[in-house]
Specification:
178 residues; mainly alpha; two-stranded antiparallel ribbon; two-stranded antiparallel sheet; 10% strand; globular
Length: 178
């Protein structure tokens, strides 16, 4: 029963969210019954969940350079002043992208992305002694002061998802030992 439900859910997501022209899964607005033409880093979650086809995964990975910055994955391709857009990156978006890339055999890309995000977070931890909720992945900093116009402008410290995602990525990169 659960396998059937998962297959039905994957088929519905493919039908409603896959945009063949863009080569991406896009958010679906159920009120308007239309896809939202706004590329977002959650596109890699379809690979993490395992329901992108191999062909879809290849098309998504071809767009990785658009999302990738020196400090990891950009949240979106748009710079709007919103905390959920470029240049900001969030640990869960990076972690699930890394695991999705790995799942589909894109190990080089997965390791590169993990190293970029881990390097940023580690560098900022050395500088501040703290882990943060969000990071500016283009400017390689946790300092978001004055950069966010929409959403809350502070950067919360000691954030659980950053802690957990860092541990998982450090383990994936073999940095935690046995």
């Amino acid at each position: 029963v659960w396998q059937e439900r998962a297959a039905a859910r994957a088929a519905a997501i493919n039908e409603r969210c896959w945009d063949e022209e863009a080569g991406l899964f896009l958010d679906y607005d159920s009120r308007s019954s239309k896809r939202r033409d706004y590329p977002f880093a959650t596109v890699f979650w379809t690979m993490w969940a395992g329901f992108a086809t191999r062909e879809q995964a290849a098309r998504i990975v071809a767009l990785l350079p658009d999302f990738e910055a020196d400090g990891g994955l950009r949240t979106s391709l748009h710079t709007t002043g919103c905390q959920w857009d470029n240049p900001f990156g969030w640990a869960p978006l990076n972690y699930l992208a890394v695991m999705g890339l790995r799942r589909y055999g894109y190990r080089h890309e997965a390791r590169r992305l993990a190293r970029r995000f881990v390097s940023l977070v580690t560098s900022e931890f050395r500088r501040t002694g703290q882990l943060f909720e969000k990071y500016d992945v283009e400017n390689m900093t946790s300092d978001v002061q004055g950069k966010i116009q929409f959403g809350y402008p502070t950067n919360e410290t000691g954030f659980g998802w950053t802690n957990a995602c860092m541990m998982e990525m450090l383990d994936y990169l073999g940095c935690l030992g046995d």
